[in-house]
Structures are given as structure tokens and as C-alpha cells.
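INPUT
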Amino acid sequence: MALKSFIDVHPDSHFPIQNLPYGVFKPHHRGEARPGVAIGDFVLDLSAIANAGLFDGPILKNSDCFLQPSLNKFVGMGRPAWKEARATIQRLLSSDEPTLRDNDSLREKALFPMNKVEMLLPTVIGDYTDFFCSMHHAKNCGTIFLGPKNPIPLNWFHLPIAYHGRASSIVISGTDIIRPRGQGHPIGNSPPYFGPSQKLDFELEMAVVVGPGNQLGKPVDVNEAADHIFGLVLMNDWSARDIQAWEYVPLGPFLGKSFGTTISPWIVTLDALEPFACDAPKQEPHPLPYLAEKKSKNYDISLEVWIKPAGQEHSSIVTKSNFKHLYWTVTQQLAHHTINGCNLRPGDILGTGTISGPAPESLGCLLELTWNGQKALSLNGLTRKFLEDGDEVILTGYCKGNGYNVGFGTCSGKIVPTSL
Amino acid sequence: MALKSFIDVHPDSHFPIQNLPYGVFKPHHRGEARPGVAIGDFVLDLSAIANAGLFDGPILKNSDCFLQPSLNKFVGMGRPAWKEARATIQRLLSSDEPTLRDNDSLREKALFPMNKVEMLLPTVIGDYTDFFCSMHHAKNCGTIFLGPKNPIPLNWFHLPIAYHGRASSIVISGTDIIRPRGQGHPIGNSPPYFGPSQKLDFELEMAVVVGPGNQLGKPVDVNEAADHIFGLVLMNDWSARDIQAWEYVPLGPFLGKSFGTTISPWIVTLDALEPFACDAPKQEPHPLPYLAEKKSKNYDISLEVWIKPAGQEHSSIVTKSNFKHLYWTVTQQLAHHTINGCNLRPGDILGTGTISGPAPESLGCLLELTWNGQKALSLNGLTRKFLEDGDEVILTGYCKGNGYNVGFGTCSGKIVPTSL
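OUTPUT
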């Protein structure tokens, strides 16, 4: 029989006892930031559980990792600590365990209705890297900008291409995104366009939250890379296509991206995702030895993008994609990142890049969906080529279990006009 | 008559009382990281001065900014705090002020010989950005890779191009640099090269240390940008040209750079550099209004690169350049960085990009000096196309005053073999 919590969890919930994702929250009107775990419509306060002495395993018993305003310390402790925490929390929340279930005063202290808390960034993010790992996305972008002949650069099939993004402007789901100003391509002999971006886009991504880091100069073996991955979040890598197109030669994206990147608040652990593991796509040419995995794994995570247009009450779905479409796995991404000796630190973020699938309805950004604005997207009677002020973009993702979901909740943001 | 310290300062020293650069140090064999100021061959311990109650101005009197293991808090306080600190320190160190000069016990506590301390990174670096602001460097790179026709991309003259670098692998001068491994261009139908980089290079740069940051969504006006700049350091943006050339299309430099970036430990403030301000180059086309400064300023800072080849006792000078060759000013760089709303934080690092001058002996990297390995550089009887294991690269920079220097000390690093 399936594991069940004493807390009522709706079958459609993303947060049953099989999930137990980690985040950082602040109760409304009182208190400090602290780590929590989502269970149904509640947040379990891990600082309260720790203060009650209920983390009684050998690793966590004397640790203050849940008495911190971020998850960096906990995620840096590695898989043995994660396994111990998961076992303890799963036991405390299960229907047949009285410790928390029958202790009114502890439940009062440790369980907060989700709508009574504010979610914060789960980690202090030292560095943020963004990869480019969906072949469909790479092919579509290449076709749009370079034409259909050789749209994917030769290096793409040999290494997971990436660039460093801006850590300071990563924000938590629900934060408004201010339309960036910047330069766009000049027309003829005029000076470049300057003003609010006219091609504001979303990008459907997921991102790894790094667990234990590696020392500078010590690469991580690809077959051990999973031990450096705490879990995954949803990520919207907002992009100003006009700014990006003008600035990106020769050093890559900069201001076209750095005005804001949204992540979802709940980190779903690899342990919770394990039942949904699936084979990664076959890689041809075969990767170099440092990228060749004994077992190359993806996860079957359904991904959706919804847009709620300015002034409307309802949102429309614009994309159905899946994490399993990624060509390069997250473990290959991490191994590649460190092969030159680059050091990762706990809490770092590694975005996958836009996750587009093969089908027209599985494209992960408006650039692809509207073919760079050449055709409009229909949204319940309205149309969009790029995002307008007031539009809200909502990403969601979930794995379908037998009678339950392991989900990521939502990752949302609304476009607000340029501030002057 | 020139200001003079009671501490003997050799006329060739980089650190007379006119300079007073800030760093973070740890005395050998004891104690915690703390802020200090360089004076001649000594380091003045600012935590000792603060603990003695000698920061008695209105802003610093009750601040713990010098009781921190980094300078982030102090640099974030802004110019009024910086001016007050400089006035206090300059007074305490001057030859006619008895407070410190005549107090043996305080001098004992507060002054450390420079060779008895370890220098650390001066700030916790939230994000690191690298610009591309020398026209000579841009032109030479373009000519090498694209040919002599239109070597500089059109956008270059309209905006200071930049990319985000890796903050985690920024190290302090004196740290060994481990030769990175990685992929290089395949030859014919072979798989890509994989192994230790065969084209390891230095890049002569300087970098801004950001003072007060800006809120997400609130650009900094170019005419107020200097108030967000605490000072400058030397920077060596080590580059693996073979890794970079293969990986950088289409998203820019990544592993070719992220294995290590060295900065000098002493931050020379804009106040100390002010006597050496000079006009920036005329910009044609005229920049867009958000980049147009009332007064466009550079600094006359002589820059040198020396290489001490593996196994040799002496180093040879390979480059003489100058900060004033930069086309885009540091204030324009900072204003551009924020025009899309991107937030900077105190302690962030903004590199200028390689600072090459117009003359053949003023080129800021081996890529240019050896024209991508086509000709060898002569080093006192030896030759180099790129860096070999055991080679040490030493950057230095200074402004020549009347009878004194305002200098940056050195920024050095030695290449050590790939670790396996």
C-alpha cells in the first residue's frame, strides 16, 4: 500500500509524502527565514522539528543545518545527510506515526498553511550557469538565425554548451519582472534602437541546485556527479530577444538575460525523482570518455507553460514539454562544468537551457513558438508575438505516479512596465 | 610640502601615504581575516584602529565595518564613509600626528610587516563580469580570427560588450593556477582534442570593485556611476585559447576562462587615483544618451606584464600598457551593466577586458603578442608561444606622482601541471 501522510493531501497535489521538496520560507507577520518541506497545502518548519530534537539520526542530531536562513549548509552535507533527513521527515509525516500527528502543540508550531507563508530563495546562489541542452531548441534557434542548413553548431554534439548568467538577479516565483530597457539593432545608418525591450520572452527551463561542491582544480567524475546534485527547480530564464541579438557577438548573452531569472521555491530532490528516471537519448557521436556515463539518466517530468494575458482572468496553456527531451544529462552538464577544474559551491544553480520537445506544441519559448515574431500565438481569442506588460507566465512541472504526483508547484512572474 | 608618514616609505614603494589601498589579511600563525591598509612595507590593521576607538568621525564611530572578515560592508557604505576613513587613516599615519606614532603598544597591535601576513580576497564576490573595452585588443582579436576586413563587430562602438565570468574561481595573487583540461577543435573527422590546454594565456586587465549596489530594476545614471565604484585592482583573466575557441560559439567564453582568475590584493580607491585622472578617448559615433558622460575620465596607470619562465631566476618584461587606452570608461561600463535593471552588489567585480595599447610592445596577452602562436616571444634567451608549466606571470601597475607612486603592487600566478 502506498505511503500516506496524516495530513490530507489532494490527489492532484504536487506535494504528497512521496515528494517532500525543500524550500525556505518566512511566516507572514512574524519570524525569520527558515527551511521547510512542502506537504499537501502545508509547510513543515524544519527549524521547529530540529528544535524539538526530532532529527535524531547520527548525521543531523547535532547539526544546526535547519537553523539557517538558507539551505546551503544542508545541501552541502551530501547524500547521507539528505537520506537521513528524508527518512526522518517521511516517518514524522506518515499516517501511522504519532509523534507529530498527536502532538497539538508541536503541530501548531511546525505546520504552516502554505498561503500563510512567504517563500524565499532556497539558497544563497554563488554562481549561476545556464546550459543549452535541448537539441530541438538549438535546432530551432539555429534555423531562425542562421537558416536551415547546419543550424546546430558542430561543437554542440561534443559538449554541453553553457554560459555564466547573473546570480544577483535570480528571483523567487511571484516576483514581478520589470521590462528591461536596452539597445537593439540599428536600422540602416541610424543609431541603435534604445528603449524598453520589444521582444520580451520566457524560457522554459529546469535547474539543478548543486549539493556538495568541488575544490578548485579537482574535476567531478561524471559517474559521481549525481552526488553533487541536491535536486531540481523550475526556472524561467526571461530573455529580451532584441537586446540579446544586438549584444551577443562575440561574448554571448549579457543584458538580454540579466534583468531577471525566476526559479520555483521548492527543490525536488533526486531521491524523490528516482521513480521517474528514464533513459537519456542516445548520443551520436559517442561522447568523450569524461562525459561517457555508465548509465545515462533523464527524468520523465511533464512541463507546461501557461500565459495569463494582461487584463484577463484565465490563463491559456502554450507549451507542453518534458524534461526527458534533454540531450545532455544534468550529470554530464555538471561533469563538463568542472572538467577544467572550475569549482562549484553548494547552492549554485545550473540551468538546463530551454527545454523544447520535437512537436510544435512543445516549444519552450516564444522565439520558437512565434518563429521570432513571424506568426502570432493565439491565447483564448487574444494574440501574442512577444510578452506584453501585464502578462503573467506560469511554468509548472510534475511526474505522474500511481495515484499521486511528484510536482514542482509553479514558477510564475508578471511583466510590469519599465521603471524610469 | 608633500604629505609624509611617520613610517619610512621608499620612494619606489607603491604604498605611500598618498595611496592607502584597502585589503583583507590574516597575520601569519594567528588570528582571523580582517581589513587593512597598505603603508610602505607595513599593513595597518583597521580592526585594531577601530577597536582603539580611533575612527571617531560621525559615520564610522559606531560602525563595525572594520570588524568584518571582508570589505563588503565598508565598500557598500559609499563615498562619505570612504572619505571619512581616508581622512582618519591619513591623519593617523602622518608624520606630525602622535596618536599612533608615539603609542608603542598600539603600533605593536596595529602594524604588521607585509611579509608577516597572508593576503586574502578583499571582498566576497557575488558576481563577476568581464568587459571587452580596449579597441586595440578587440581589433587584434578580430583580425586574428576573422581577418583584417571589419575585425571589430559593429556593436562594439555602441556599447561596452561584456559577459558574466565565474565568481567562485577568482583567487588572490600568489595562488597557483592549475592548467585546465578540456576540449579543443577536432582535426578533420577525428573526435575533438581532449587534454591539458595547449594554448594557455594571460590577460592583462584591471577590475572595478563595486561599492554601493543598485536595486533590481533601477539603473545607475552614468554621471553618478563613480559613486558606485570603490576602487580598482589588477586582474589576470587566465585564458585557455584552444578550449575557448572550440566552445565559445554561440554563447561566449565558459571553461576557457572559469578555471581561475587572479586579482591583486590591494584595492586602490578612486580618491587615491584622482590626481592621475585624464581624458578618455573621443568616442565616435557619439554614445547613446544613457552612456554619454558630462566628463569622460580615464586614469593614467602604467601597466606591465612580466614573465618568469619555469626554472629561471629572473623575469622579463613582455608588455608595457596603460589603463588610459580603454575606449569605454569604467563609469560607462557600470551604467551599461545596469541599464536593463540588473542589480550590482557591494564587492562585485567588473573586469575591463584585456588592456592593449596601440604599440606592438603594449599588447595585453600572448594571443596578440605571438599572433595566436604564429611567432615566438623572446624571454631573455628562451621563447614562448603560450605559457608552459612553471611559468609565473606577474602584472603590476602604478601612477607616477611627484616623488611618489600610487601603485597596485603585483598580481601574480604560476602555472602548475594539470592535476589528475
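end of record. The two ends of chain B are 59 Å apart (CA to CA).
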